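Appendix B, Record 12. Input sequence as logged:
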Amino acid sequence: MAIALGEPGADGLSEAVGVLREWQYDGAPMQLHPGDLGWFWRFGAEATAAAVRTWSRDGRILAVGLLDDPELRLLRLTIAPDAQRDEELARQLVEDVTEPERGVLAEGKVCLDAPMGALVQDLLSEDGWNAGEPWTPLRRDLTEPVKDPGVRIEVIGPEQAHVRTAVQRASSDGSTFTDERWHAMAAGLPYADARCLVAYDDQGNAVAAVTVWSAGPGKPGLLEPMGVHRDHRGHGYGKAITVAAAAALQELGSSSAIVCTPSSNVGAVATYKSAGFRHLPEIRDRCRDA
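Logged structural output:
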């Protein structure tokens, strides 16, 4: 059977989320997580479906990609564990991301984020795609108890959505996370296994926030996104909310907590390490120059 490139549509998102959950395991290369689709869901189910691509053979999904850029400049791709060196699939992926008329990536400068070690990485390198900026994945094992974060932590429900979104906007320049987008995200399939947490200082100010995404019991859970209010940095709140995130994922049954940040963001890397995460080998996108 030939490899079929498809778009799931809103009705097909549950299947894409389901295979992403299945493909998560401890020791896997950093890869697209159901929580990545969950975070994108803040734009709504239809927009999320329009940004997802699947590659299937004989009715089985072998790869899932998320177009994490409105101009089709970045595809975040992951592949079934038993298909990462599948030559037919890898060659089809290369064709589909190389030719703009396939409806995956645009012309000009584009990047593909795929698991390190997948055959598609090798083929794109042979085609002249260069290594992009380095990213640092980090992981914390959750088989041991997680200490108290040392600050007041609240799990955010619909009534406190405005608190969560305000901290996000105050922690990330250019953030467009509104209350309406929080509610859209919370209505998405992946959020059934997610939590939003906010940390407060002694004066009752909301100082940091994080969203955590479980992929199911015994699987790695994801932090995406985490931020500290720009007016409250330098007081250890990043470490505190990250420890709280690990505890929340542990309660959800996750085997580990994972996160990925640009290696150039040395402050973020240091924060995660202070919260008990250990950094894994750097990863890089494959990029084609214009």
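The domain at 4-132 is CATH 3.40.630.30 (Aminopeptidase).
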